[in-house]
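Worked example 3. Consider a protein that binds adenosine monophosphate.
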Amino acid sequence: MSNDVVVIAEARDGSLKRPSLEVVSAAIDLAAKAGGEVVAVILGSGIDAAKTELQASGAHRVVAVESEALAKYSGDGYATAAVEALKDISASSILMAHTAMGKDLAPRIAARLGVGLISDATALHFEDNKFGATKPVYAGKAYTKSVANKSPFMATVRPNNFEARSGGSADIAQVTPSLDASAIKAIVTEVIAGARDSVPLQEASVVVSGGRGLKEAEHFNLIEDLAAAFGPGVAAVGASRAVVDAGWRPHREQVGQTGKVVSPPLYIACGISGAIQHLAGMRTSKCIVAINKDPEAPIFKVADFGIVGDVFDVLPVLTEAVKAAVAS
Amino acid sequence: MNIVVCIKRVAASNSTIKVAADGASLDDSGVEFEINPYDEFAVEQALQTKEAVGAGEVTVVSLGCSDSVKELRDCLARGADKAVLLKHDGQADAYANSEMLASWLKDQNADLILMGKQSIDDDNGQVPQRVATLLDISCVTDVKKVEIQDGTVTAERDIEGGREIVSCKLPAILSTQKGLNEPRYANLKGIMKAKKKPFEEIDASVVESALTTVSLSLPPARGDGRIVGEGPEAVDALIDALKDEAKVL
Ligand SMILES: Cc1cc2nc3c(=O)[nH]c(=O)nc-3n(C[C@H](O)[C@H](O)[C@H](O)COP(=O)(O)OP(=O)(O)OC[C@H]3O[C@@H](n4cnc5c(N)ncnc54)[C@H](O)[C@@H]3O)c2cc1C
Ligand SMILES: Nc1ncnc2c1ncn2[C@@H]1O[C@H](COP(=O)(O)O)[C@@H](O)[C@H]1O
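Given these inputs, the predicted complex is written out as structure tokens:
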């Protein structure tokens, strides 16, 4: 009997979400240590594009669980269909991306299976015949490494932490779940797209964040301009809690302990002091840039590169310089 | 309406984290504890819902050590009617927490169960979905807006790049996200009243964790950063550093 590493992948509007590819990649590394194949399971309806992407993701097999009842995400509906599909796979581990869907769905599956779940894993382990993972705790101020005492092992994997790869042409097994739409308890009645067709904060390669140093809501155009300078689909705008509380920016842009946790390749903090609760949301970014007029601001303690200066002077110049660098 | 709010006592968000001698747990000397910040939105939602309906009872429950009495009393002072401490010492993962909470909750006949979206110590975000699954009731997570009418919940939650409107029937579990409401604080009158409110302590029926923590460690310090310069003149040096050293441009 094989012991496969299962990835429950995620489709949005029919196509695959990028963090799912990263999880497949992490699964390939885990299977290389623990044995077994990587099986990517995708749920939904009208997900041909996502299936094709998964076939070339490096996964060994793809299982497509398709039904009209899965057209829209529902926590209990997806959990029921996923658990049913898992019955036919002997899974040593089950992985998902730590996205809005993964966060909501994985605990429901774990509860049905009666197993543990490591949320927001930044590393996966297989040592002494035990599966485990490392994850941030206390808002990234520390990390725990834990091992699973029950099987299968489950984890949600932090986006932007594993390099997606491509390759292979996996076979697809088609599964029709017995789920009846009328059995779904909590129904998504409407999905409202965000204000702009912007890059999701947690998937952006660059996050440009502004704080109280911007002085007024209107001045956030400086932040938006710098984000736009990286080109379409690259950068997202973030904010400190101070400016969210002041009503300058929506809460979905808040970075930190009570906002989002991001770890992009590049994080630029503008007019942000660097309170411990803000650092919690961004300190694992690969490269941190801080612009602040106070050379003693705590943000400089975590920044790789800092400019001591006034955001109103520095940002326009930086925006032009980034445009030029991106163009060349 | 019978409302239950689950609250957890956690290390305060501004705590400095130190690793205990066992290498796997928090050294809590000098650490302040408080109600999990997300649970404050849950408590407030419970109070507002009861006020809107004009009838019902709000019970706050916490699974944890005896010190959690303090956080529970604070909730009573804010306006909750009744508190229950499910006594349990030591570590428990989300699996064990959920099993223990669910085994108490299943007999409570709650119409609405409110929890925070995530505890800020373990950073899990699992217990609401797990408990709902165990009780076989509806669950909506990360709720930022909610309306409850004639036994139907309409809730709004953020997803990547947008929002979802979710509808379900009571009984249900909602996990609360920042932005849902402005939590009230206890006033003196509330604190006095709280002393007379029912407070029950029960030993939790212990469930072992499904995970074992092997180590707790601090992240490597990000020490070797530098100031590249002052004012707009420093931009060129920054661009060079981003290109040549960080290789992110
Ligand atoms: C339970 C709890 C949870 C929290 N969660 C979060 C969270 O998730 N995210 C978060 O961000 N905070 C959070 N906070 C709040 C946090 O403690 C800080 O209050 C907040 O991060 C400060 O925001 P700020 O840096 O924008 O403002 P400030 O601390 O006021 O800093 C403004 C900075 O801008 C600089 N500045 C001013 N003018 C200029 C200028 N012209 N040019 C350049 N620099 C300038 C100043 O030197 C200063 O460093 C939380 C707090 C608590 C208690
Ligand atoms: N020990 C506990 N006692 C009471 N409620 C809890 C406990 N653990 C978790 N919760 C609730 O579940 C929510 C999410 O917790 P978690 O899944 O641990 O991140 C918290 O905000 C609480 O409302």
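Take a moment to read the result before moving on. The first strand of chain A starts at residue 4 and ends at 9. The radius of gyration of chain A is 21 Å.
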